[in-house]
Amino acid sequence: MSSTRYNASTTSNERKRLRDRRAQKNLRDKRENRIRALEERVAHCDRHHHTELSRPREDQNAVDCLRRENGILVARQERLYRIIQELQGQNSGMLDTRAMSTIPIHPYSILPISSNNFPIPRSLTEPRRPSIASMLNKDGNQTSDSSAVGTTSLAGSPSYTVSSTPSPYQTTIVRIAGPPRNFSPHRVVPMNVPPWCLLPYIEFTTVPAIHQPHAWLHYPEAINVCPPFPSPLDLLHGTKRNFLADSINRGLRRYNLRDPECLANGYLIYVVDKWRVSPNPTTYSRLPPFMRPVRAQLEYGHPVVIEYLVWPQLRRNLATLWANYDIVELVDYLACCIKVRWPWFEDILERDHNDHLQISRRFFETFTRTSGWGITSEFIDKYPELLEGLDVESIRYRMDIP
C-alpha cells in the first residue's frame, strides 16, 4: 500500500519537472527569437540607412565650406565698396533723391539683388475683401515706389492664387553664415536702384544687448515660408504654425504691452521683416508708406529696432544720433511710451463672414496711419532733441481713462 503511494508521488514530481523544463525551454526560445529579430533589424538598418547617418556630417562640411566662401566674398565686397566710395567722393550730393538707394548690404546679404530666386507672383487676389494696399492709399492710385500690390483680409490669413507665369522681378539674396560683420558707419548711396531693394544699413554687433529680441532675423528661410500676413491671434498669443508671428509675439511680450500696441506693432514688424528677408516689389508694396526707409536709414548704421518706429522723422533722427544714448534704455522708453490712439475697452478684433476673428477694420485704419499713433510726455520730456522736425503737440499722447 505504501509502495503505491510512493510511486504515485514520484510520478507527480516528474511531471512537474517536465512542465518546468518545457516552460524554461519556451522562454529561452522566445528570448533567442527576439534577439535574432533585433539583430536582423540592426543589420537591415546598417545596410539601408548607413548613408543617412553620415549625412549630418556631410551637411556640416558643406556649411563650413559655404562659410569660407562667404567670408571671401565679404572681403571682396568690402574692397569694392571702398573703391566705389573713393570714386564717388564729392559726387554724393548729386544723387537722385527719389531713388534714395543703396546696394542692399545688410546682415543677411553679400551680393546685390540680381538673379532668379524668389519669384514674385503676378496675381494675389482674394474675393470679398478689399486690399490692404487700397486701404493704405485712399485715393486709389498706386504709388510710384511699388510695382506690385498684394491683397489680403484683415484676418491676416488671405486666400490667394499665384500665377504660374514667372515674374520678371526675381531676386537672389546670398546669406552670410556666422555672425554679422561691421561695416563703415556711413556709406554712399548709388543712383538708379529700385526702391523695393533698398535695404536699411543695420548694425547688429554694436548693440548686442538688444540683438537677442530680434534673433528671428537670423532664420530667413523660416521667415520666407511664413504667410504674407499674420493672423491677429498669432501675434497676440503666439503659435506653433507661424515662426515669424510667434517670434514677434515673444519679443513684444517682454515689454508688457497692451493688446492694441502688441497687435499694431506686431503687424508692422511682420510686414517689415517679410520685406527685409525677401525684398521684392510685392513685399515692398505691403509696407505702409510711412514704414518705408528714409535716406538716413540707408546711409547710417543703426540698430534694427529703429526700423519699426512709425514716424519717419524720428527714424531719421535716431539713425544719426542713436550712438549718443544708452540704446537699451532708449528702446525701453520707446516701448512703453509709444501708444495707439484707440479707445479703452473697445474691441480690436471682429468676426468675418466665416465667424473667424480678424483685425477690426477701424483699428486697422487707425494703426496704418501716423495720426493713429502718439508718444507720451515722459519720452518727449526726456529726449526732446530726438523729436526735432516733428510737431510735438500733434504726436503727444494723453491717456484718457474713462
UniProtKB/TrEMBL annotation:
Residues 1-30, 132-163 are annotated as: Disordered. Residues 13-30 have a biased composition (Basic and acidic residues). It holds the Pfam family DUF3425. It comes from the Eukaryota. Residues 1-12, 139-156 have a biased composition (Polar residues). Gene3D superfamilies: 1.20.5.170. InterPro entries: DUF3425. This is BZIP domain-containing protein. It comes from Aspergillus avenaceus.
